[in-house]
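Hi R.,

Here are the chain sequences for the assembly we discussed:
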Amino acid sequence: MTTKLLFALLLPNAPDHLLGDLEEEAAANGPLWLLRHTLTAAYHQTQLLETAAATAFLLALPLTLALELRRYSLTLIYFRESANFTAESLTTLTLLAATLAALQVRSLPNPRLAIIAATISTAAIAHITNAPQILTAATLLGGSLATLQRKRTQP
Amino acid sequence: MPKGDALGGFEQLVLLALAHLGDNAYGVSIRQEIAARTGRDVNIGAVYATLDRLETKGLTRSRTGEPTSLRGGRSKRYFELTAEGARALEESVRAIESMIRGLNWGELG
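And here is the predicted structure of the full complex:
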């Protein structure tokens, strides 16, 4: 299950034989070996941007939860009612929004539709969490750049 | 082989691994063969990037094997040298041998 999730996040378009090789060797070498070699394989598969986004997603999700649980336990106010963001939570939220945007840009076949969807979802996140709307503009820009990058690296 | 298509160092290692492995040359065995003989921790992604480049140059060819349960039901991709690949490898190795000849390792560095 963990292996499938790792492959889906880091090597979404990788050929079957590469995933099979990683799975075959992981049985003898363990999960850390698999993580390291999957990350490096993603780099070699020219999915650097997507790897960065997916890695950020893997880190950002637990970090966001931990930060917001801590904030909740300290202040006993709901997340959406607080407009005063700490630098850490804003950075994490930005990473999360950017990662969701990158995943949508990657998974939806039509690039324009993907950028529109990513922009709308980020606007919704910013609205719900009271985060600055500049995130939405950043997503629009990031999504467009990611699409251009993909066009350059994938024939 | 055109001048600009000279084999790189890692390309040589991959082609030599194919030559050693014969019919059993696929991602895992190639990676392990290079690691065992050179002591380098080679990444499978780097091996496939190189194999794809070599196949584009016409120096290797590949075929898909049967899926196995050990690999989550995924197939292996077997590689072999083409005649042109074997020639390019031989030329490349001879060039290195020629450059090495006459060197006194004790006097270097």
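Chain A has two domains: 2-44, 48-153. DSSP finds seven helices and no strands in chain A.

Let me know if anything looks off.

Best,
T.
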